[in-house]
Amino acid sequence: MRMKLAGLLLAVVSTSAAMAQGTVPTFTHTVAGKTYTLVGNDPAKGETTTIPTVLVPVTLSFEARKVAGKPFAMDAKADVPRLLSSPVFSKFAFANGGKTQYGDALLRATFPKATGWHTLLGKPEVKPLTVTIPVGYGYVLTSKKTGEHVAVADIQFLQKEIFKQLPKQDGKLVMLVVHNTTFYAEGDATVCCSWGTHGVDTATGNSFVLATYLHAAPEVVEDKDVQPLTQQLAEFLKDPLHDPLFHGARGVTAPGNAVSWMRTASAQGGDQGRCGGDQVATRYFLLEPTDTNPKNNFPASKPFVAATYHVQNVALLPWYVAGSDAMGATYSFPDAKVLTEPAKPCPAHGAAGSAAPARPTVEPVARTGGDNGHRLIGYWAGYGSASSTFSLRDVSPQWDYILVAFATPDKSAPEGTMQFAPPTGMDPAVFKADVAYLKSTGKKVMISLGGGGQHFTLADPKSVPNYVESVTKIVEEYGFDGIDIDFESPSLSIDPGDTDFKHPTTPSIVNLIDALRQLHNHFGPNFMISLVPEGTQIPAGYPSYGGQFGSYLAITYAIKDILTFIDVQDYNTPPLQGLDGEIYQPGTVDYHAAMTELLLHGFNVGGDPKYFFPPLPAKQIAVGFLTGDTNAEIVNGAMDYIVTGKAPVGATYKLRKPSGYPEMIGAMFWTIDADRRGNYNFSNSVGPLLHGYPAPSK
Predict the structure, then answer these.
(1) CA nearest 135: which of 607, 658, 667, 679?
(2) pTM of the prediction?
(3) Where are the alpha helices (DSSP H) in 552-647?
(4) Is residue 268, in this structure, part of any structural domain at all?
(5) Are the beta carbons of 371 and 661 closer than 8 angstroms?
(6) DSSP state letters, 86-111
(7) Does the residue 157 lie in any domain?
(8) How large is the average pLDDT for residues 415-442?
(9) Which residues are identified as catalytic?
(10) Enclosing H/E stretch for 80
């Protein structure tokens, strides 16, 4: 329930402690008993505060890409003059009166009754520096059509490396600027993308803003010039004590201002109705409520045009806390029309409304026709509330291969040991009978090993027997047809110096290959093995090979003769490059086609022709989809294009084989459970499409 806050106690208090800690000046503002910290000094005093600023153009030197034997450099020094002329440092006539800087106008829009009050950035000292991005910590993409570059880098790594070089800057704002670079978080490139970060660096105590300047970026990038920088600056002004390296457990409050907000229908483009978070921006990507950003794409939102520059429309503090007499009732800046109503708070975790969804209200489409070689593949989780209502026996007849998720590492047993039990509340005997029933109807039932969030490694060769023995026991006890390998980052990571996927030296990879061969030898030629790499683990091996990038390539190559199928997760992936030399973002037909053709035609690993990953047969390749991240129209368009060569309207990627790949095995989904809860919205559509194709000619 929201309360009208007019008339409640408001307090504005200067904070001198922040200066002693090395941060910029801050003040606190209390609304309805909750205190929020902002940049500057007490608005009631009507004074001008000028914040000393250090501008640091950062050159990023990427070892994953070499030009004339030297690492490729993304240099921000040339962006400095354009940045200094922008509304970040120069005055512009914003709507709330007078010419001033972007940050000052934002704060004045937050406290419109404060007269003579300004918070300005001083003329900056410019201190360039260079950071080397090692292999495995980022890569560079280049548009063949335009020749423009955009980089993808580990933001936590970058922040730490920068502040190893930059000492404490007491009371100053350190503004770190990179060139045409987007970022991933948590050291995991599937957690992508943001344009930067901000707050207080815990190692040095420096107040800072880190963001990219976009100049002549590839066409796939929608934001422009200082838009990313103004977004991070705005969030810093609203939450200057934010700790970007904070990793708290659920229920642990992050440093800085605590707020609660739901994403809006107008801004989120299909992502509305989800919790935006407990800070002024989303947790990993630091996106504004005004951002539209499909999963793992470059952030994008409609800018406010200031002269020749593009600045970010952002939510003001009154939007998060429903306003007050002192703050007024303007919710967005610079365009006050972007957000016209205050935020709705997120529901409490576990509150009513998050209970088990209703049963489907439609029937699954019956499976008809003969075997044409195409398969609908899905993960059955059966955990939580679904376990009491959705058994394996109830799986739609459209599903051909059912992957049971998951067998997980047994932390209480010797290293390498895997464990599995049916979902809580499900009788093991009933579960085994259901597996047998599905197999009797011609389905294949496999056990998936690993899963997201599970750390597993076979780094010690002595752990291989534990792995082989425990997996063998699981397969035999439950009657599974085979195994699915779902070891995600950071379980599989290529060691430094391991550069040849045909002759890997990383122990965890070498030992897993050995274990898979042992399992196949034990069970025989009908034993099924599938791989479900993230986008970083196969197609990202095209621009860079090392760390998480390309970590499944050695495994795929080594077991290609015993591999049943591979289905790359086209949803756990950052933007990547296709064989046509163009950059593609996830969630589109173009992306699915481009990433699939990397496997169908092979590619130069790390861009190096000395290491060519050979193509796989189409009958071994499926495309991986996430039910909550796509729709049947996109999936059907992608599969029809890849299988038959019929391009849907709007597709720009051109298949290297215009007639398509009729032997493609099909489509994989996470999860069968979600599909059923959604009234079979994928299996009732994609299944008949796949099963309706003519069988490929021999």
Answers:
(1) 607
(2) 0.93
(3) 553-558, 589-601, 632-644
(4) yes
(5) no
(6) STTTS-EE-TTSSEE-HHHHHHHHHS
(7) yes
(8) 94
(9) 488
(10) helix 80-84
